[in-house]
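Key result, reporting period 2: structure in, sequence out.
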């Protein structure tokens, strides 16, 4: 375990800018999630996580930042967009992080695995339902009703995929009605805490954490 109290922003210059036509380019929300993990670093270090999963890893900057400070944690990522999986593995490699990326819907094909940490920056923009559920760049942002159609599906999977003393970090915007998310997770037996919030060009972004 490193003695670092910071999460470093991973090196990204290896990425061809044109590839961001197909994969979500790291933006303020990505960096707010990294800041949230940094803010919670002492808590996470005390947990000494064995398995960490980022759902929807996109370019891979978030899971790579995590892996850089937790070199002994086995890091896994999923993304519905296979080009994102390719970018995630290259970002991890360039930053000397071991990552196992899997091209899949949310966490559907992990049968017996339980993760100590699960991280998700979902497609959160409020859109028509029909726009949501693609496998290309639209999957980066199109969130359907309340911007929550993808997120809500994951919420109901968390109890089976998170270890008993695990922690789930979720980025939301105010339009997603975070109080409803908190209530859904409470029904599943989880406590919640606001880790960090920021206003970005009138968009209220926040990161919540859930644990038992
Ligand atoms: C807002 S982007 C976040 C990307 C990256 N985590 C970041 O913070 O920069 C959302 C990501 O979720 C992925 N995604 C959307 N629906 C998904 C699903 N059903 N299963 C897995 N990944 C999904 C998208 O392809 C996209 O890479």
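The corresponding designed sequence is given below.
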């Amino acid at each position: 375990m490193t003695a670092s109290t910071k999460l470093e922003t991973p090196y990204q210059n290896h990425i061809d800018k044109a590839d961001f036509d197909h994969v979500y380019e790291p933006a303020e929300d990505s960096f707010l999630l990294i800041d949230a993990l940094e803010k919670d670093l002492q808590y996470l270090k005390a947990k000494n996580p064995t398995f960490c999963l980022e759902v929807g890893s996109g370019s891979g900057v978030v899971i790579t930042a995590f892996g850089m400070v937790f070199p002994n944690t086995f890091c896994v990522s999923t993304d519905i967009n296979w080009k994102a999986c390719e970018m995630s593995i290259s970002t991890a490699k360039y930053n000397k992080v071991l990552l196992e990326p899997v091209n899949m819907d949310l966490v559907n094909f992990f049968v017996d695995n339980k993760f100590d940490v699960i991280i998700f920056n979902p497609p959160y923009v409020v859109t028509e339902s029909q726009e949501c559920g693609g496998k290309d760049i639209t999957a980066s942002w199109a969130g359907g009703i309340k911007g929550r159609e993808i997120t809500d599906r994951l919420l109901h999977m968390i109890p089976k995929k998170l270890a008993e003393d695990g922690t789930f970090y979720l980025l939301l915007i105010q339009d997603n009605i975070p109080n409803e998310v908190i209530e859904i997770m409470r029904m599943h037996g989880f406590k919640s805490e606001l880790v960090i919030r920021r206003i970005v060009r009138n968009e209220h972004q926040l990161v919540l954490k859930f644990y038992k």
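The domain at 23-211 is CATH 3.40.50.150 (Rossmann fold). The first strand starts at residue 51 and ends at 55. This case is discussed further under Risks and Mitigation.
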